[in-house]
Design a protein that fits this description.
This protein is an alpha+beta fold. The radius of gyration is 29 Å and the shape is elongated. The relative contact order is 0.08. Helix content is 59%, strand content 22%.
Length: 166
């Protein structure tokens, strides 16, 4: 009901009637140009009002993620100073996994602690780096099981694995 009332108010306004008079005097070619200009303007306004804030929020969230990841890596690197993970066979598995990953330029896309096990997801990593990293983990007495490797591009893979200490 309110929509109909608003519609009537717009149609009865002097601005709308002036615009209709002006538009009605244009030839058909000019009317087509005005319709296209109105459509393009509408799309641009929608982009500015809807898409631009979403893109801005996306960038802000990416920045926040990078800061959080940097903080986590700093904590993992310094965990041994505060009685946390060390490069020895003792300590939580996450810290022992993250340090070599950083050396090989590998970023864990996702991980889940499951008791003493750690499930990891690596997306779009260099295959040789991932294998070298897993060999390094094996030297630290961390075993990989349930490994799934999917090729994404030449020399790059998505890797899923469960890591276990001991």
């Amino acid at each position: 009901m309110k929509l109909e009332q608003l519609k009537q108010e717009v149609y009865n306004s002097s601005l709308w009637q002036a615009w209709q008079g002006w538009y009605g005097q244009l030839n058909s070619r000019d009317q087509t140009i005005v319709r296209w200009a109105a459509a393009v303007t509408t799309v641009l306004v929608l982009l500015l009002l809807i898409v631009a804030p979403l893109v801005k929020k996306n960038h802000a969230l990416q920045d926040q993620y990078q800061r959080s990841l940097s903080s986590f890596e700093l904590m993992a690197d310094n965990a041994h100073r505060f009685g946390g993970a060390s490069s020895s066979a003792s300590g939580p598995i996450l810290g022992r996994v993250m340090q070599p990953a950083k050396r090989y330029g590998i970023s864990l896309s996702r991980y889940e602690q499951d008791g003493g096990d750690l499930r990891i997801w690596l997306d779009d990593v260099v295959f040789d780096d991932a294998i070298s990293w897993m060999e390094q983990l094996q030297q630290q007495n961390i075993r990989a099981s349930l490994v799934t490797v999917d090729r994404t591009a030449s020399g790059r893979v998505n890797l899923r694995a469960t890591l276990t200490q001991g």
